[in-house]
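# nightly structure sweep
# worker-07 picked up a monomer target from the shared queue
# config: single-sequence mode, recycle default, output format = structure tokens
# input follows
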Amino acid sequence: MPDKDLPRTLHKVLHKVKEAISGLAANREPVRIISHYDADGLCAAGILCKTFLRRNIPFHATIAHTLDASVMGAVQCKSYPWVIFSDMGSSSLDLVEKLDSHVVVVDHHEPLRESKKVVQLNAHIWGIDGAFEACGSTLALAVAIALDEANWDLAGIAFAGAIGDRQHVGGWKGYNSELLAVAEKGGHIRTRKGLALEGPDTGKALSESNEPFFRGISGNQTASAALVKEAGIDPATPLENLSDADTSALASMLILHLLKHGTPEEFASGVIMDRHWIQGFEADASELSAVVNACGRLGQEDLGLAVCLGGSNALEEGRLVRQQYRAQIMKGMLELQAKGVQKKRNIQYFYADNAQMAGAFAALVMNFLFPGNLATIALSRSGDSIKISARGTRALLAKGVDLAKACRKAAQGSGGVGGGHNIASGATIPLGSEMGFLEQLDAAVGAQQSPSK
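# output follows
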């Protein structure tokens, strides 16, 4: 697509990306890719790997949970002319700057600072909100397009990553919205409305739903069937056979159910969602996101990457992993529904058995199970450390809450490290320091909220 036809923000981003990676495009030198293990990170890695495969640029991809000394040591042990960090790196500049390579960081997390040594393709540096308007995979798409405009066909993978970071909630915004408009115009993505449910029939789709999670209905086949019948629908009806009237009636009942149990309107209205069908995939972006996320969370990052690359049978294998993941999420949510959570003045918290799934539980608990005005914190043990996943709401942001700053401050006071987004952040702290961390975090979140609000 000619530059003159691109929206202003997208044009500016692509121009800066082209300048930053001109050497890589010209020389086809070996590239080391380090990317995060969640849906956004895996989709970003998939886009970059696919791009380099198409240009015959040799690469070595590594999927990491965090950037620490061990990961950086593995990168340093073999010299690469180029190292690209995707969906991570801006919060770890002190480590990244030590590499003796051309280093590019493709990230949407708030950077520690600007860097004279590292090229940061970071949304925040361009005045784009990395929490809501751009993610690692949509920025990776900018890299792909800058190298070759034929890579617009990777747009669907980028939006699967963005959905994994929940940037679609409330509608696409800013840079993401511009990207989607161009991708739809080019025929790479087709969008149509649908229910946020998946399953062999309507009754089972509702009973197996964990996002949205319907308190008293999810995990309960009898209650699910009763609600579907109340909407005038046979629970055995396949979702694709529902009429527009049936879809509307069921959606209205489900939205009312969520609102009744305190779910914020922006998440309740997500019962009806845009489904973005991807050219070249037998899946829409929401399903692709869920499959890739499940692979990452259950330790099968290589399969998640293969799904993004379109590997033979990878999508079907990934769907089986997703079934396992959904079952674990449902089990955990039903346990939390029964046990409840602990509350302080400004936060609520609980313990999760699996550190890799803690963030998902925190978001679901906050939005659907115990919604309210409290930031939600999941704690999980990982060796001699405690991993923290913190989630907030837009209402809390409007009051001045910034979880990235709060987690960083509380973690530093507990001998650990923290950071992330204002609405979704995390930390790693020493085992045994969690109670002190929670006290400091509760105080920090409270101090951020203006008394006038």
